[in-house]
Amino acid sequence: MTETVSRISLHTLEQGSGPLTLVFLHYFGGSAQEWLGVMSQLSDQYRCIAIDLRGHGGSDSPATGYTVDDMADDVTDILHQYEVQDFVLVGHSMSGKVALALASRQPTGLQSLLLVSPSPPVPEPIPDKERQKLLTGHGQRSAAEQTLKNITEVAVSEAVRKQIIADDLRTGKSAWDAWLLAGSKEDISDRMAAVTIPVHIIVGSEDRALPPDVQPRLTLPYLPAATLEICRGAGHLLPWEVPYDLANFISKKLVVNVSN
Fold this sequence. Notes:
Elements: E1 2-5, E2 8-15, E3 21-25, H1 36-42, E4 47-51, H2 68-81, E5 87-92, H3 94-103, E6 110-116, H4 128-136, H5 141-151, H6 158-170, H7 173-181, E7 199-204, H8 214-218, E8 227-231, H9 238-241, H10 243-259
Parallel strand pairs: 3-4, 3-5, 5-6, 6-7, 7-8
Antiparallel strand pairs: 1-2, 2-4
Protein name: Pimeloyl-ACP methyl ester carboxylesterase
Pfam families: Abhydrolase_1 (PF00561)
Domain AB hydrolase-1: 21-130
């Protein structure tokens, strides 16, 4: 489906129904497609909505408007258009920071955050050499193929491989440059005291994009009540690499939140 927000069109995927809505947000250079395997396992109990953030997937790529708050505004608009009430935000990598920014606003109905290898609330530790390599490699198939190798550890099918590369290549240049030059460097740590809902984090033990130690160093100091789990043997793209393990993680955390 396509929804118009702030004069741009955002592409969304929706499955299932239930009193609780799970809102899935993707990684930098990805799309909502990464969540289909997870959503298929949860849609019998929950309403699942996955959003292509601006400049990604099937959504529009405006020339400007790529701050963390701009993307959080887009998600808020989608929540209103879909008349979402009680919900959980599931953010992956780049969109982990977006989810944290949105949670700090304490929107009505938000129950918890589930973060997958999230970009921390402080500037993301991307080495300068890697940042420049990503900037110059935009739109190049060879660069997209190399990125795939760098950010996955578990072997994926050929169809998944093609989708990951296609998502990388169709990411708008404005969105690409904006995240690397500005969004990833944003510091929203002063807002984290306003995040009072449960926060659960999961990372791959072999994540080379945001290694496991990033969370204890740069995220947990600002969210001391958050939990952290390690998925052994996985890389950065858990929704693609280990969708069943990730769906189980989400299910268990939702049960814990309800029981509390």
